[in-house]
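We include the entry.

. . .
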Amino acid sequence: MSSLRIKLRIDFGEENAIGPGKIALLERMRDTGSLSQAARELKMSYRRAWQLLDSLNQSFGEPVVITAVGGKGGGGTTITALGNNLVTAYRELERDINSQVAARFESLTGKVSHLRSGKRRSLTKSGARPKSAASAKPRER
């Protein structure tokens, strides 16, 4: 199984975009019927989830999700046909692109360093970290 994958963001003009976070939120809201439950499952603040949802609904000429205010009967969210179409189109494109990435880059995965456990490799032969221009000593003439 390949560890290659691509994170996809689709821009609809200058102001509107969908990406992995908004799509995951739509999927969780579809599955749970609740913005707050979706946010909890994604380990996202309710405020952030609401901002993403508002951004989605403002991006299109019709709602992506319809919300009902909570209370005695309970609130909830319902993903619209447009929302379902966005999720489906995004996931299909993501699957297609990841297949292409695997086919084109699989032969290069052996060249990827597995030493990146938070440590940066030295860029010099001696192993010393290169000095930045600001910290280097001035040259004597």
